[in-house]
Amino acid sequence: MHPREQTIFALSSGRPPSAIAVVRVSGSQAGAALRELAGAIPVARTAKRVLLRDSVGEAIDDAVILWFPAPASATGEDVAEFHIHGSRAVLNVLIAALSSIDDARAAEPGEFTRRAFENGKIDLTEAEGLDDLIHADTDRQRRQALRQLQGLLGDRARGWRKQLIDASAWIEAGIDFADEDDVPEDLARPAMEKIAQLRREIEQTLAASVRSERLRDGLTVAITGPPNAGKSTLLNRLARREAAIVSPHAGTTRDIIEVYLDLDGYPVTLIDTAGIRETDDPVEQEGVRRARDRAAKADLVLWLSDDHGGEPDQTIRSGETSLWLIRNKIDLSSPENDAAKQGQPAAETRQGTGERQFEISAWRGDGVDDLVAALTAFAEALLGSGEAGVITRLRHRNILRDAAATLEKAEALAGEGDELIAEELRIAIHFMGQLLGRVDIDDILDSVFKEFCIGK
Ligand code: GDP
User: Major location, coarse class (predicted)?
Assistant: First the structure.
């Protein structure tokens, strides 16, 4: 039997141990699995409590089972669900029992979703939305993924595809009936107007979606500065846990530590870089090199200094990365200095440089709330509310950009021959098919579904 026709099974809930684990079975043998283990197939879509038994009658677990006959199931095939106690031992026995059923095997990553796609339950953009929803860390990512799963981009692509087919039909009619009298004189003109309008719509969608693509991955903020400036202390305060080793000895953080933050729904990866300074120690030199590298790629660099900290490294300053200067350890300032600073805002913009300045005590917490508020505003400015965009992946962007370029070519061919325009339209329709996963399936599918987890 071809692997695609075999029955698949997998743990679909989290890793054991857990209170309950859900094992899903999809394929023609799903009913056989229920009969074998539970004695009978229960009423469709109704939970039933049973004692599962293996082939020699030995009890496996007290479980709840569900039956979703094809085609009204998640995959479009017969689906059985076993809700068991979530220990490794119970799971192992159930998986062993399922493995002994003819033509049943463990599922590959994403295989349930792939079957749903192949059986027409969802299009490719919805499958991608499903994957994003499973991996969403913040509430904004969840909302964006859910819109995708509900077909926001898919519906738009289907609409474009249909209109392109209509425009193409008008052009083709003009070609086929060129010599006949009863065909309206100029079928090409409304078709060309339609093509121009669709091209504009696609370009607008691309422009509106720059931020929604970024929301999927989030921002990177690098904390840099000389050794002992308090970078790890700040990272720990921001992360509210002991992610980096805080030590009074210079040069402790030799590698890069990453901490993940959810700032009001915006995903931010915070990087603590090794103290940037000249050193002869080769291990530390490597840390410094990596720190510079990461900082150069970050969306924002926080340059931390204490009273002796001085100016940021020139290599950090270069490039398009935003740089904020943060003076740490203000708790050590003398009372006279503090009195002189009374009334100054905690955050200010240095004249002419566009860099922002903050004064904090990472250790005591002064000024950290202002810094977090500023980071959140920075993330919002770059990632947006996520409401406007519909494209979330480079795959979508590349296809739509090619589609818009093809339509532009078609527009430029006006008057040069309907056959040439019709050919460009066929290509544009093909692109919409690619977006929805209707054409060139094998190439695209393998790359999309390999990102999925097993059991999904
Ligand atoms: P890093 O090398 O930049 O990561 O610096 P650490 O976070 O390891 O801090 C170096 C030393 O400075 C440690 O002894 C910290 O406790 C201390 N430190 C960090 N932040 C502050 C602060 O705001 N005030 C004071 N007084 N000490 C701090």
Answer: cytoplasm
